[in-house]
Amino acid sequence: MPDRDSVLTPPVADRRPVERTHHGDTFVDPYEWLRDKENPEVISLLEAENAYAEGQTAHLAGLRASLFDDYKARTQETDLSVPSYETHTTGQAYWYYSRTIEGKDYPLWCRVPASSQDEVPDLTGGSLPGEQVLLDGNVEAEGEKFFSLGALEVSPDGSRLLWAVDNSGDERYDVKLRQLADGSTTSIQRGIAANVTFGNDEWLFYTTVDEAWRPHQVWRHRLGSDPASDALVHQEDDERFWLWVGTSRDRSWVVLTLGSKLTGEARLVPTADPTATPRLVTPRREGLDYQVEATAERLWIIHNDRHPDFELACAPISDGEVAAPFDTWVSVLEPRPGERISEVEAYADHVVVEGRREGLPAVWIAPASDPASAEPLAFEEPLYEVSSSAHADFTTDRIRLNYTSMVTPHQVREVRLDTGVQTVLKQTPVLDHPRFGPYNPADYVQERAWATAGDGTRIPLSIVRRATTPVDASAPLVLYGYGSYEASMPIRFSVPRLSLLDHGFIYVITHIRGGGEMGRAWYEEGKLLAKTNTFTDFVDSARWLVDNGWTSPDRMVAEGGSAGGLLMGAVANLAPELFAGVHAAVPFVDALTTILNPDLPLTVTEWEEWGNPLEDAEVYAYMKSYSPYENLREVAYPAILATTGLNDTRVYYVEPLKWVQELRRTSHWGGQNPILLRTEMVAGHAGVTGRYEKWRELAWEMAWIIDRGGRGRAEGVQS
């Protein structure tokens, strides 16, 4: 048990200066030695940081327990997903689904025989008659401290199960194969990428990673053969590109997809001849970003050759060495102003297109014979999140949508492709709370507001609160942001967030530049040499919320993770006076050090996002001007919580570790506003696994947020 001093006094790491010189500039880094996680001193320091974080938050133990109980009370723990219909090459059809059991951490993946797509099984929970358990996550996770699936797929004939599992959090997966008739299981490969798929009933394809953790090779394995004899199908040597493999919906093609941040490429292997040499769709051209949806005789292609917000094209698949030369692409659907086209799913008679429209997700459906007639589906709420749940059967006459909003729990909707009529098949239950009673969406308000950036840009905000929470500057508020990689932050329902709202908080997502909410230009205005727009947009959003009476600086907590953690570090430097607390999850706060080292995972692929500071002095100077670790100041920082995982491959634990050490040296309010680091010692970028451990992790973080927001009361707000 930690002694009293260890929980009251922050741990102090040795300063062992290392000089780093680029473009005539020298930076002295006193903590780079902490990168070696095999060093016992580093592990001891992380453990001391954890003890200090626990000691500083010991007064929140009751609140954490209360929050955990809230999540548990509102969750239907024994439940059943909406089954998906799939017909195999043998003609046998099944309903596939997952189910959860009270007291168990992981789902069971199951199936039952199906006679008709119209006879959907009972959805009230529990096992179904004739059920076959394909994979029990609880059994597979026994004896493991971490369990995460990267792939789960049934063979075309329905006789085998293929899956990939990570047991450390470093996103390196072991591939296993199970004969469903007798349950016998074999190991196929170890330590590969998450991406693995059946080519046909006898062959599977998988990806492996290079030393920088970049998926760069696709391999072919014949079932029953020695994995040592697996054949290399394709290798991508350009370090900017990642490589994925999948199978077309009609099972005609194995599709190899290659992509950097700016350029795309695809290659095809016929499933009827899995050993064939992959055929290039069209030659790679710098800046031409494209992805394909393949059917037996034609390709549907999303590309940006003429439209920065992409368009949909169609092309026949030729017999030549190049499967679909660019000059054969015919545009069939162009974006209108305010629209961004991002994905396409092809079925026998229809195409389903996904993208964004006026800052919200959009889904278009059209006959395959007339894609230009596509109109976006209509939804009843002003804010929502929706995406297509791709159907396995190419000949289906219906698809599923995943729909949610900040006040509507997750729904599975069925949509008829010919009419567009939507039917809600299931809404995730929210159980009665012992204090607040039944969940009623009318007790909460979600709304869209627009903040104004310093350059006049209007920034969309998604806001939710209890209807009884006043907008008079008295309410505590969480401001969440990300703003990178053209990723759009989802506007979705969250049971844990209900507890936050019931403690009187307002929750706001600011959809800042660098994300994809408002189209490709929105992304480009928040990357490379325009990256600081992301940070100033967040600060301007915070100021707008204060100026318009939503909250006050002593009650506002900022939150973001990964690249959003870089955002947290940057805004803490820019405007520490605006926030009572900052939660930086797996934060990319030592960005310049990472992007300068091409041997680290992801670095080379990231140069198209951030620039290449190794070769470009302007990029180096620009990144150094905002990278959080290099820009700490002797000011009064707010309380800061950094959370990370020891085995995180995407953002190394060393970044927040170095950051908090230097923060404590520079912050004027270190005693009044503790700076904490909490490290999961067996976890990666996504944190712990197992729903109960995940709830405990969320409760720990949320209790800290409630406490820093100044209205932390375990009893919550009276309804």
Write a concise keyword list for the protein shown above:
719 residues; alpha+beta; globular; disordered C terminus
Walk me through the topology.
Blueprint: H1 4-8, E1 18-22, E2 25-29, H2 40-56, H3 61-74, E3 79-80, E4 84-87, E5 93-100, E6 108-114, E7 132-136, H4 137-140, E8 148-154, E9 160-166, E10 173-179, E11 185-192, E12 196-198, E13 203-209, E14 215-222, E15 231-235, E16 242-247, E17 253-259, E18 264-270, E19 279-280, E20 290-294, E21 298-303, E22 311-316, E23 330-333, E24 339-346, E25 350-357, E26 360-367, E27 375-376, E28 385-389, E29 398-404, E30 411-416, E31 422-427, E32 444-452, E33 458-466, E34 477-480, H5 495-502, E35 506-510, H6 520-524, H7 532-547, E36 556-561, H8 563-574, E37 581-585, H9 591-595, H10 603-610, H11 617-626, E38 639-645, H12 654-666, E39 675-680, H13 691-708
Parallel strand pairs: 34-35, 34-36, 36-37, 37-38, 38-39
Antiparallel strand pairs: 1-2, 3-5, 4-5, 5-6, 6-7, 8-9, 9-10, 10-11, 12-13, 13-14, 14-15, 16-17, 17-18, 18-19, 20-21, 21-22, 22-23, 24-25, 25-26, 26-27, 28-29, 29-30, 30-31, 32-33, 33-35
Helix pairs in contact: 3-13, 7-8
Helix share, percent:
10-25%
Residues in β-strands, percent = 25-35%
Supply Rg. 26 Å
Number of helices: 13
What profile does the largest beta sheet have?
8 strands, mixed
Mean pLDDT level: 93
Poorly predicted runs of 5 or more residues: 711-719
Straight-line distance between termini: 41 Å
- DSSP strand tally: 39
Shape from CA axes? globular
Q: What spatial order of strands do you see in the largest sheet?
A: 32-33-35-34-36-37-38-39
**Helix and strand composition category:** alpha+beta
